[in-house]
Design a protein that fits this description.
Elements lengths: L9 H9 L5 H24 L5 H20 L1
Amino acid sequence: MANITLAVPEETFEKMKHFSEIRWSEVARKAIQQRIGDLEMLDKITAKSKLTKRNVLTLSKKINKAVTEKFLA
């Protein structure tokens, strides 16, 4: 298994020390695996998409606007 080193803000590290029973390397490993799974699924979905980059950007702007209006209203 390969090793990686992470940099976390000091405040986060202090909070992590408070929960010393947690295996933080396992938490990081699972988060990385989850993100990879999400990205692989996104690749699979977008590979079949007929949307252009311009369509995606337009749709993204509409979604962001709608979400912003919903939570700021």
